[in-house]
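Task: fold both queries, return tokens.
Query 1:
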Amino acid sequence: MKMSIDALQVKHGDSIVIEIEWATDKVFRILVDGGPPGVIAKINIPALKSHQAKALTSALDSYRHAGLSFDLTVLTHIDSDHIGGLLAAYKREDYRRVLGTDIWFNSARLIASELTTVQSDGSDFAIDQITGPETSVKQAADLDDLLDELKPNRRLVIAGQQMQYEWGTIDILSPTSTQLNELAVKWEMEIPSKETSNKGDDYHETLEQLQKDDEFSADTSVPNASSIAFLIKSEAGTALLLGDALSQTVSDSLRALGYTENNRLAVDMCKLSHHGSAGNTCPEFLSLVEVQNFIISTNGSNQLPDKRTIARILKYCPSSKITFNYPELLKKIFHADELKNYSHLLTAQSGRP
């Protein structure tokens, strides 16, 4: 039995393939997010595909050619760097079977039907006036329309739920019903935030300086607060998939499951929240977990990860490895002496071609 997590190279976004081999010839396959728009060709023309990022297309094609499909597809939240590639894949008939029949996607319509939330004018019930390919709200509405036609199995996913499978369990850590209600009445267009693309990076500072001057400033993004985060537990392995979830929400959920500073959750892998943003990995969370390998998913074009996040991990989880799905970030972020001193902890994933 074994479990693998492949953080695909989808530019500044997330697209994660998880395979849980739990018995002979039995594998449970999960796709989490699809990266930003443009990481997958809209039509199957090689000349067009050559201009796209290849990793997601390669993953879907390998499943399609092998006659395989995902047992579960998860859209953590509607930010463009998570939904864009997934929407493009659903628009292609040759990929729909690969994406499977079970999807987790907390759309405004599903929130309204399950939580009886009153929709605002900014929700995807009144989406016609909102245009533009980078507007994640419109992408969410388009995906909802497609799913209404395709009729896959859907359910509202909320913190506190546990899904049981033959191979193990999935505990939902985020979002709360309160956070989903807040999202439903405050759908936002895709606007760069100071937390990410406008803030600059902290790579000139040393890890020692960042540890000494550390002060946690929490992410306050409403879409990020709505992000699905979950814990996989099986005999094949354990993993945390955190999307862009708020660190305090995840910490609260872990405490509700009985984990404390003296009874830490041991996991094999953890995909860090929000591409390693310092606002989404708080000291409290790190004090509740023992992680063999943290994974950071981004090419750095969004000025993430924050080096402060890595400094924080090295302080609270000093034996954990930190893996980047874009190897070139190592030399960009760390000084030469840091790469030497932490060479046993800082690693890179080769990624799909």
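Query 1 returned. Query 2:
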Amino acid sequence: MSHFNFQTIDWDLIPETEHAGTTGTAVWRTLQLEGLRIRKVDYSKGYLADHWCKKGHIVHCLEGEFISELDNGQQFRLGQGMTYVVSDDLSSHRSFTENGVKLLIIDGDFLQLSKYMA
């Protein structure tokens, strides 16, 4: 298990990386720690993820709204102040936003289902 000393994150000091979606772009600012990734992510207007993701996440909507779509057709609309959580390999999901959105996304080893299966 990883342990972290107290630290603050000044997101303005973390470099941006741009990731193309099927439509639109995602801009990430990523803090990578041992077994833990924390990202501040902005999706542009009309962003649609270019893949179905099976990775677990905690996704918190900071501003705007988006739709998280599951590969079974279910759709969940999340707006400012809403959060979803899913463990690795428990769903295939992708995101879409009509007007853009700002998210805080946390993922890491603690979301691996195999860690909790005996």
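Both queries returned. Flag for query 2: The domain at 17-113 is CATH 2.60.120.10 (Jelly Rolls).
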